[in-house]
């Protein structure tokens, strides 16, 4: 949304969509400093979708500033002069960004708090050349969930879950001795009952690798609440520090509500690349789905899914499951029995086996290829990766005991894309041979200040039907086999003949 500013004489007000950030020239986070509501890539994207028949393709924007609710920042410099920010483009030099305009205000306030703790305790920022120091990175995640306040005040009052990435193997290492002191100081000054109540919780992650991978495999909850909740599209979703989550909560909520409208009531849904299952769980609640399967390779998402599942309304009557599995391994198995398949892949796009499975599922649904025999299905079920997915699954049975329909294949494909270049390639592969066709699409400005957008694309199975001309238009009906005049056209022709 444009920002309102006063002119110097205060006689009038103007609206601006400029970034106006003091860190712009050096920080690698933003590439645009003007017209944040119209990233240049939209010209290409709009032209692409117009050619595919999407006449009203638009971009949905929310806040252009203070939208980012997740940040992973490097910690470098010295204990007297810590630098917390992003690496300068093509370098290992960290640009300090204490006043980032994209960050939620609570993130910038937490950065200030972390710097004060580093300076007072003499905490040593990480030196990657020498592989020395204590604090490597800091992750900050804002939760706007707060039932003690009116909903309109939730966002502005967001609290931060802060995770300190410590250069140690675990909490018992000698290097971790001062971790507790830093956590306690942060909590003392930022806990909900303090004079500066900006923190939700304090966590630690332990990482000793010399690579550029931010997190290690060990996490520890230190202070505050262990569960971070966010209300999205009317349901409460739980996140751990290791969970993937959207940075722009407000605009993604708009995307989610539009996505829900593309799913028929009572559908059976499978979601690949599901993460913590946010999309799937929201559909189970809002679209009264018979079944919802969520498939995700990251085992860390399981706990979040379990906690979110336990918070669903008692009225939800769906068979719901989460499976820890690589969607690119035997993906066709997940698609059978579903009416709707949802894919939300990383920036690189869909894995080739997933594309092939989606094409195969469409052909089977159209009756152009036969479904596998029960012997073949049994063999797939007994393969190691399928057994592991079942063993590590989370299930909630419905009261109605819905049974999965055999030989049913998706007729709707919903693609949530954060990588435009990858989406174009995936699109070409999906529609080849009339296996799928594009029915609708919309863009979402999830990353103001960048030249990136999120695309929600709705595909339908098979060949795109010819455009039907509405009755009463007075023109030839291109969809009619005989190309006869419509009724309105006949009346017009009859009237002209009588006048002559």
UniProtKB/TrEMBL annotation:
Span list, region Disordered: 465-484
Q: Which PROSITE patterns match?
A: SAM_MT_RNA_M5U (PS51687)
Keyword list, A-Z: Methyltransferase, S-adenosyl-L-methionine, Transferase
Which residues make up the binding site for S-adenosyl-L-methionine? 246, 273, 296, 344
**Active site positions, chain numbering:** 418
Family per similarity comment: Belongs to the class I-like SAM-binding methyltransferase superfamily. RNA M5U methyltransferase family.
Protein name (Swiss-Prot/TrEMBL): Methyltransferase small domain-containing protein
């Amino acid at each position: 949304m444009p920002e309102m500013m006063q002119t110097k004489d205060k006689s009038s007000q103007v609206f601006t969509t400029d970034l106006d950030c003091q860190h712009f020239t050096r920080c690698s986070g933003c590439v645009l400093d003007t017209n944040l509501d119209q990233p240049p890539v939209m010209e290409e994207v709009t032209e692409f979708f117009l050619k595919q028949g999407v006449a009203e393709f638009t971009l949905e924007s929310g806040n252009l500033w203070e939208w980012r609710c997740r940040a992973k920042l490097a910690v470098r410099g010295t204990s007297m002069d810590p630098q917390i920010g992003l690496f300068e483009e093509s370098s290992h030099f960290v640009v300090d960004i204490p006043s980032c305009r994209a960050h939620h205000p609570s993130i910038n306030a937490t950065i200030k708090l972390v710097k004060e703790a580093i300076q007072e305790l003499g905490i040593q920022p990480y030196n990657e050349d020498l592989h020395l120091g204590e604090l490597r990175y800091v992750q900050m995640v804002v939760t706007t969930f707060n039932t003690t306040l009116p909903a309109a005040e939730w966002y502005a009052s967001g609290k931060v879950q802060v995770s300190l990435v410590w250069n140690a193997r675990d909490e018992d290492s000698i290097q971790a001795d001062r971790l507790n002191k830093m956590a306690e100081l942060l909590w003392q000054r930022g806990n909900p009952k303090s004079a500066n109540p900006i923190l939700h919780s304090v966590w630690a992650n332990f990482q000793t690798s010399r690579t550029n991978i931010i997190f290690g495999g060990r996490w520890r909850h230190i202070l505050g609440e262990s569960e971070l909740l966010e209300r999205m599209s009317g349901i409460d979703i739980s996140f751990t520090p290791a969970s993937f989550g959207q940075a722009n909560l407000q605009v993604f909520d708009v995307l989610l509500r539009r996505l829900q409208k593309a799913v028929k009531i009572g559908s059976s849904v499978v979601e690949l690349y599901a993460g913590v299952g946010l999309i799937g769980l929201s559909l189970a609640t809002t679209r009264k789905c018979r079944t919802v399967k969520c498939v995700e390779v990251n085992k860390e998402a399981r706990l979040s899914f379990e906690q979110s599942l336990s918070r669903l309304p008692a009225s939800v009557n769906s068979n719901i499951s989460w499976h820890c599995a690589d969607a690119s391994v035997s993906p066709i198995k997940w698609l059978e029995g579903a009416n709707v398949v949802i894919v939300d892949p990383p920036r690189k796009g869909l894995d080739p086996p997933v594309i092939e499975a989606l094409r195969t599922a469409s052909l089977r649904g159209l009756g152009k290829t036969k479904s596998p025999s029960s012997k073949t299905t049994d063999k797939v079920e007994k393969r190691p990766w399928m057994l592991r997915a079942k063993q590590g699954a989370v299930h909630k049975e419905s009261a109605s005991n819905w049974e999965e329909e055999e030989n049913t294949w998706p007729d709707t494909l919903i693609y949530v894309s954060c990588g435009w270049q990858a989406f174009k390639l995936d699109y070409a592969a999906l529609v080849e041979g009339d296996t799928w066709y594009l029915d609708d699409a919309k863009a979402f400005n999830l990353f103001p200040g960048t030249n990136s957008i999120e695309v929600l694309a709705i595909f339908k199975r098979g060949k795109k039907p010819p455009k039907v001309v509405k009755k009463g238009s007075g023109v030839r009906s291109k969809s009619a086999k005989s190309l006869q005049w419509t009724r309105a056209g006949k009346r017009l022709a009859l009237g002209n003949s009588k006048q002559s």
